[in-house]
Amino acid sequence: MSHAAVASLPQTLGALRRSSEYSPERLARSVKQEIRDNLVAKLAARETLFPGVHGFDDTVVPQIVNALLARHDFILLGLRGQAKSRILRALTGLLDPALPFLADSEIRDNPYAPISKQGREILAERGDDAPIEYLSPDERYIEKLATPDVTIADMIGDIDPIQAAKAGRRLSDELTMHFGLLPRANRGIFAVNELPDLMGKIQVGLFNILQEGDVQIKGFPVRLPLDLLMVFSANPEDYTARGKIVTPLKDRIGSEIRTHYPLEVQEGVRITAQEAWTERESDGRTIWMPDYVPEIVEQIAFAAREDSRVDRRSGVSQRLPISVLEHVISNAERRALQAGETLVVPRVSDVYAALPAITGKLELEYEGEMRGAETVALELIRTATARVYDESGRKGLGKQIVNWFEMGGSLKLEADQSAAELLKEFKAIQGLLELAAELVPEERDEPEALASAAEFVLDALYAHRRLTRSEELGYQAQPQRPKKSKRERRFEPEDFGGETYN
Predict the structure, then answer these.
(1) CA 97 to CA 106: how far, in whole Å?
(2) Given the DSSP bridges, would you call strands 228-234 and 74-77 parallel, antiparallel or unpaired?
(3) Which neighbouring-strand residues pair with 98?
(4) Please, are residues 386 and 394 in contact by the beta-carbon 8 Å criterion?
(5) Radius of gyration of the chain (CA)
């Protein structure tokens, strides 16, 4: 709500009592009931529950809805880059626009029924003149990244001996206590990311609050029936294998929901397009993105998630295609600036230039480490290019081009050649520009677009091993293997799954 809208709301307890919107019955609702009520209304109106989260409509979202309707605390289990934090933060969309609380109350007490001693004293002293303030949905969301150095004082609170001495109070007095994150999240959502990294004794403090509402600070018991929706995230390997979750806490978490990476390439393309910084038009230059480039970028992530050389327990984050796409555009921008081109069109060579955005995001198994991250990344790009070319429906249509190379032709391209220079080279290759033109929309007949499409065709033929390519010689025909007799072929390695038998 805007400041003007908040200013128009009741500013004292007496005014709040007279308002019809904030009755004691309404404010007595728990935060879980409030979320449930608003969720029911959104479902009935068919509103989007988690804007910006794609690919979970038929899998993860229904499970979250069920947990919230059941008023459960829940945990999201998933590998890195699966939008867990985004989903948790989007829960604020299910909270009321403004929540009144007693001003000066550290734990945001309900004005009608404060649970802290501080709140009760404010009410006893001021009565109906007690000032009221309001919390926005974002202010009611508190998130903590679990790390081994998190203490009980951080999460629950500590005693402030200086405050006790100044006020002449005993250390056991609640007013001498400095509350931590959990009490300060009262009447809101408290999220813990990477839960298994939280020390066991801190987890014990969490489940005590989840179930009993008891808080012990430095050995002094404080009864605080906190009103919270507690949500967590964790990597499934940490959650199940390392054994770092305290069993009573696991038992008290109502629902366990598993997230996943995009199941379809186009779904991943939409996510990457949403998250990547692609709108960079400046200085009279325009960026045009051919469809096949973001598809190749996304297929790199899909291929990596299937590759046995990549550690599947760590996963391949959706941040990989996001970073790669941004790197691709940057390389295309740099080339256009050097060539003086006003239309920036990314090419497949720009994907190869994005190796630094790939290698740092791959956790490799032993075999991958032996091959090297760069070699694995190059092979992933090659696999991705072949898949995208096949899905374009043009598999096997490069026969004329292959014939040109088999007749002795070769082509060596420089990384930063302008589109005009590339087209001069491509015109000599029979059938290449005609096939490339089929990949370019009619309204995009600029040299930059046609050069990008022609390079894609060549690289797809290389990816399918119809051509070879090297740094020294460029594109060439695939060398012909001499035909062997059946006797000579009996012990070919490929006949035995690629292994050599002695």
Answers:
(1) 21
(2) parallel
(3) none
(4) no
(5) 31
Separation between Cα atoms, residue 267 and residue 424, nearest integer Å: 37
Do 458 and 439 form a contact (C-beta atoms < 8 A)? no
Give the number of residues written for the chain: 502
Kindly state the helix (H) or strand (E) to which residue 374 belongs, with its residue range.
helix 373-391
What gap in Å lies between CA 62 and CA 470, rounded to an integer? 50
> How sure is the predictor about 420, in pLDDT bands with cuts at 50, 70 and 90?
very high
Report the pLDDT value the prediction gives residue 77, as an integer from 0 to 100. 92
Cα–Cα distance between 492 and 499 in angstroms, integer? 9
Is residue 163's pLDDT more than 80?
no
In this structure, what token pair is assigned to residue 484? 């062997």
| SS3 readout for 225-242 | CCCEEEEEEECHHHHHCC
* CA–CA distance, 240 with 234 (Å, rounded to integer): 10
Residue listed under structure tokens 């303030």: 133
Structural tokens at position 356: 């630094």
Cα–Cα distance between 235 and 230 in angstroms, integer?
Answer: 17
For 291-338, how does the pLDDT look when each residue is reduced to its tens digit (9 = 90+)?
A: 999 999 999 999 999 999 999 888 899 999 999 999 999 999 999 999
CA–centroid distance for 424 within its chain? 43
% of residues, the chain, pLDDT over 90: 57
Query: 69: exposed, middle or buried (C-beta count within 10 Å: 0-12, 13-18, 19+)?
Result: middle
Q: Which residues pair with 99 in a beta bridge?
A: 135
Q: Please say whether the beta carbons of 313 and 296 come within 8 A.
A: no
Token representation of residue 339:
């060539």
Contact 364, 402 (CB under 8 A): no
List of domains in the chain:
13-258 (3.40.50.300), 265-477 (no CATH)
Distance, CA of 21 to CA of 26 (rounded, Å): 8
Contacts of 94 (CB under 8 A, 6+ apart): 34, 35, 38, 39, 42, 49, 68
Residues 404/429, Cβ–Cβ less than 8 Å? yes
Q: Is the pTM of this model over 0.90?
A: no
Backbone angles phi, psi at 403, to 5 degrees: -60, -40
Average pLDDT over every residue of 473-480: 84
Identify the three-state secondary structure at position 378: helix
Q: How far apart are CA 55 and CA 285, in angstroms?
A: 33
pLDDT(425) > 80: yes
Helix (H) or strand (E) holding 204: helix 200-211
Strand 220-223 with 157-159, pairing: unpaired
Tell me the C-alpha to C-alpha distance, in Å, between residue 74 and each of 69, 129, 194, 253.
Answer: 12, 39, 13, 6
The answer to whether residue 500 scores a pLDDT higher than 50 is: no
